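@channel sequence for tomorrow's demo:
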Amino acid sequence: MSNEPYVDAELQKMKTNFVDKGVPVIVGERGAHLKTNGDGSLKCPGQDAYRKDWIQYVTKSMNAYGLMPMLRGAPASCLTARRAHRKIPI
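structure tokens (generated this afternoon):
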């Protein structure tokens, strides 16, 4: 991973400007999408592991800064790619 310092700096800003002042913060519309080719095959082998690590890192960091994380639902393109790789039932 390489963007952790940037993520933490942005989360710290939200904590300082809102949470520390008693304003609750819900962070939504986040996620890490599968990158696929036109046939549904993955462009980057192994990206599922990276996506999982990234989501876990960001979620854990949000909790550490007192923010409430919400994960966005999977768009159709993610579901199509996951079905193509038998990760979820069709």
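heads up for whoever presents: Residues 4-16+24-84 form one domain.
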